[in-house]
């Protein structure tokens, strides 16, 4: 069973779509294969058999690891496969030394021409390893022993060499072969050689399916808890590009290796990835290329992207489509009510009861939205990370009811608000959450003002205020409720709330409860706001002309449907002049914008203390639950007594609260970007007073380690902020890349270039479900399913239906490439390219010139 | 000579361009489909009746004006508009002095709220460690009916889910936030409360205030119990429906209101309106139990829909903790909309709403806290499911809870109607304690209650004063809030009950019993037990019209003491007249003293022992 043959076999395009649907099955199959292939990788370092060495070319990547580990794993896998009754696997994994098996490549099912699918499947196979190993913990433990000892003895572990890590985008020709038949052996040899030769192909870790997966497999095996700390360290070291002897040396003194020559920027990432945070690839993509990073920061020179208008025929057909659908809907209602009265019983008065729902109010839902209900609320399972597993479902009654078919598919997830990719089931954050759960359980028992205040809440509040840069903060168990219960505590009759027209429903809910007057201004239009302010102050309250008690301006940092950023510096100027209070809802921007991830203030270099109230949620970037509101101590203390949530709502669950995520989750996110006890090198120069309009972090010093509970153990990369910054920079790159490339390709895209939310306009209502379904079913060559969010009226104006992409640090450039190709194909079919007409780029060109797209400040 | 030469040349150019424009417009106008018809119409109508053309023109102008003017009231220039120059506006802006963003605490009691909130170190459980005392206390302040608060099984389930589903679904349910475990929990809940279907919200508090406006709109009628919880009050407020209140749990008053609504509807006619009765299973504010059978009878009679908030009763009442319907043995679907909480009854997190398929489906797009909020973390969902399973399989939890409630109620029974009043139903694990004779002054009453709480905590029992948002809700009398848990052993519960009893006794004045004599003087008949540094022993409410003894000057009161004040020689005893806030020194040597108290409505004995 020659490896070459195997790999060829693997590359044969045999599989159809169902391979992903049979995902679970493959996982089981691949598990053994992959891990043993990692064993073959050991040839370069550990005790290799000559037989293995011959297969150097088969190594694919720098996935070198240790034979002992692999053998241990192999035996573990034997157990597993035995348990699963997978005979084939059992045979294969027969002996500890039997590293012949050519891992994941040996799967006849693997479609060669569907690179990404490979990618996803492979990466998920690693997950199965994890789950499997946790299930069979006994065997894992056994294997752990041998693995660890071997590791520390050899101390080598080899993965990409330093040269690879440092590689710039030097090999564009190595991009994924369009037909996917990149010859594995060729690739492998180039990668294998790269261990000795300096020229690098490291890009391919992202570009190509094979490398990352096996690497990830390797990585996971090492980062998995079963392996001791020494192993982790060794792994991290090796990852840093150290040579075997160096690694060994440093491993002894137990410090993180400072990367020797050549590794450069990659080293940091290496350390990051090498930390406990290394996680399943399906949750968090692996990307080492330091060129694919960007710092999200306000650039006064950058030209703001203009909002393009579609041609008139698009507008006309859109209106016409709605007209047709409304007419059809009424006709169906008319006949339906006569022919099937029982289906309309809840819409008609009966038996002396008024209709539960008005048929007029629900018309849109029933007759328009119902047509595309299959695109909403798709049931999913597992982690909403870089990929997500959706259940397939069918409807036999026009989307009235859905039945699950029982199959699932793993799709690229470009829809969740997982900006920093912290929603993970593995890695440092998840470990901390687990520790927190073990300690605190899931519930905090009651209302904050009664007996629901845990020390964890207090710690989280401290941490949050530290993170946001304010004096104090308070946390609430739900993001929506943070707005809806706080605003009534701030304003009442005789106060004026001035709100952006596109503010979130929770803000409107809160204002309505407060009895304050409300005026809205045109979205993000500072001139309109100023006019309104002048009018409000000069005219006073209606009729009486009494001056307003106070004026509260509520805006969002980043608008979730538009991707637009608030013009904060201008608002601050207006605030000084008109003496209003400013409330910024940073639900989407916190953790996603700014060089330090502290939201719009950080992004614009504005002192967070110049904003009266900063509200944010933990559900998005921090992957936890709940929300916070931060401001001066005086204000927050008052809110603690007056806010509805503090007196009546359940306190945040330790799970949602995070002083460390979840009281765990959140914290973690904060922490990692915050950088607790950050080393002096990384810490920004402390500046005593962060002045508005001075760029750069003003008040974001490192948090004292005392903010963290003592039981919480975080990996150094999470603690010192390296990981957080790395994620922020990846997110910024992805965001700019996708929005820039889509614009270049001729799509109409709204929003700010740095926004991780990228809305792409579709206009015609029928294009929404089509776009969503085509992305999921993936028409076109590459069949990676992608889940997208389509939004229409009432969340947007009737005419501008759109698809909303939410990028994440968990995505790699490759993932964005996939999205771009998909949009390109579908965009042509659905006639979506109505934007930029001159100098339009093809998808491939965008992909090739990604850095150009990202770094140009047009 | 051409006429063109008579015209000045610059004008000529203008005329020419006008001519050209007119020609172009005419050209394109003729190209428009239907334009000849329009021309012919205008021409003939003008010929027949020139006034008609004028009328038509003014109609068109009116239509354009209507569309162009601002739609919303309050925007643009109304008749109250004052015209001002830019300079005036600038100076007004200059002079604008907004009030501070938050007002200062209104009173000392309010300022004392935050420092008095206990902080728990480590996990919340039935026996948590409190920061203030550094000791473990019996927790009767957390809703923990079944003792799931620190349940190891739930932790295990949560961790398992965490490892599979990550920390958060990171999105609203509509956008890939609907996990299979959510659906599972919804099914479990629906089955549990006996409804067709259920929907889960990410926070229990926001559930009901989102459910109500999803169904009840402007013009609809809601009949609401006066004592309902804050969430319902806010939900009703935001729905903008017509609200009719009825007396707390008073079925006769409810019927009166329902009859009134029916009468009104008959009188006014018009289309049928949606009508809801909104009430709670166990009232969060009082611990009373709803008279469900009667309400169901009434709702059917008057054709109302019933929204029942079981946030506190779910997980507490019934053989397997399924709430009031199980307790009364009424099928769950007799209630149209059931709202409940996983955070209180199941000690997980989030809230739910159950009802018919239509009720639930409607909320999936109209429940604002559902649509616009991120989904519940997967781990909380699985914990919810697990807790439901544990509830239904372990009826012994219920027995333990009932027994513990009984212990508390029997212990307190001796105080009832003497110094305290308990409206809570005997079966309710949520017990509210009112002062029997509260001082008129709310602040003082709250301070007294807080004293009891502090006293109990110092004895190792954590209870709480019900947190209120005065001014933002229906006024509620201050109460002590006690939540019994099945997790306590009989011994612990007995200890807790007696601690509570003695704390109440001490501060509400069981020992120092007083009487108010008709003449308006207060006689302290029993010696108060004075252990702590500052203790308010007791109070009496003076009659509105004091029938003063003629020998006393107007506005004074005579106080007689039976206590031997000589023993207090080194301390200060005083009689307090509230409203005047004066502490009046009491001479230790005399047992009867006369004080002048301006505008006094209540008096209390405030005895402080500096050395103790």
Question: Could you characterize what this model shows?
Answer:
The complex is a heterodimer of chains A (858) and B (612). Chain A is built from 33 helices and 14 strands. By secondary structure, chain A is α/β, with parallel strands linked by helices. In chain A, strands 4-10-9-8-7-5-6 form a 7-stranded mixed β-sheet, with helices on both faces. In chain A, strands 1-2-3-12 form a 4-stranded mixed β-sheet, with helices on one face. A 3-stranded antiparallel β-sheet of chain A has the order 11-14-13. In chain A, α5 runs antiparallel to α8, α7 runs parallel beside α12 and α30 packs across α31. Chains A and B meet through β1, β2, α18, α20 and α21 of A and α4, β1, α7, α8 and α9 of B.
What is the overall silhouette of chain A?
globular
Total count of helical runs of at least 4 residues of chain A: 33
Beta-strand segment tally of chain A: 14
| Low-pLDDT stretches of chain A | 1-278, 656-699
- Into which percent range does the helicity of residues of chain A fall? 40-55%
The first-to-last residue Cα distance of chain A is 55 Å
- Oligomeric state as shown: heterodimer
How many DSSP E strands of chain B? 23
